[in-house]
Design a protein that fits this description.
The two termini are 27 Å apart. This protein has a five-stranded mixed β-sheet, with helices on both faces. Strands 1-9-10-6 form a four-stranded antiparallel β-sheet, with helices on one face. The protein folds into two domains: 142 residues, MutM-like, N-terminal (N-terminal domain of MutM-like DNA repair proteins); 130 residues, Helicase, Ruva Protein, domain 3. It is built from seven helices and 13 strands. By secondary structure, it is an alpha+beta fold.
Amino acid sequence: MPELPEVETTIRDLKNKVLKGTFLDVWTDFPEMIKLPKSFEQFKKEIKGKKIEKVWRRGKNIIFDLSDNKILLIHQKLTGHLLYGKWELKKGEWQAEKGPLKDDLMNRFLHLIFWLDNGKMLALSDLRKFAKVELLDKETLEKELSSFGPEPLDKDFTFEKFKETLNKKEKGKIKQILMDQNIIAGIGNIYSDEILWEAKINPFKEIKKLSDQEMKRIYKAMREILSKAIEVGGESIPDKTPGQFRRISGEKGGFDKLRKVYRREGEKCSRCGTIIQRVKIGGRFAHYCPQCQY
């Protein structure tokens, strides 16, 4: 699932391409991904002619502020990715004209396409069809986002506020807490593993057993790793499926070269040489070094 760095990368790319543009039309072959309004025809009617005034994010949500006080919210979920370019429907499949997307398998999974007034298209590719799309008003958006925790890279999210946020939890393992969107927004399975490896903290460690020094290491690692991941364009883990993250151009992110533990089970820890393990914590897998994470 795209996490904060991937979503932030997408936001920055979108700002360079679609800001101040206007939606002319929209197509889907999977109307079930449109959660609000309930009818795709109503969604289409309402979004046509809307101008994109602002693009931002909250946690993993991509948010477009539109004209007439409308909001377009897209949560890419597990395998969704926004792409920008031009496609033609040939023999029942969308084909990109040129660039990194031309021969990409992602073109087979385009389920939502917006036509823009600059002649380009904004498409949502989603292998698993879990993505959520909503067209709503600001009041409804505020309600949806009201339970989110603070943004980990905000300037005013100091260590003291981080510590205060963690201490609100009476119990829980640190990996699960880092991934809880109601506590801190935007961190998922990939970056919780990477943060805890960098901080030398065992993912099973209970929140109440963390010392101030350990919390400081986690806070420092969180800020550094998320910032670095954004700098290199997010994570595109190599595999043979079209579900991995792409930038809107179709290019892959560069964090894979920096990844220390996530999906590296069976490999040697780059810090101490111990074999990295994969274990289950609360229904999710954690990857860690049992020797230098304690």
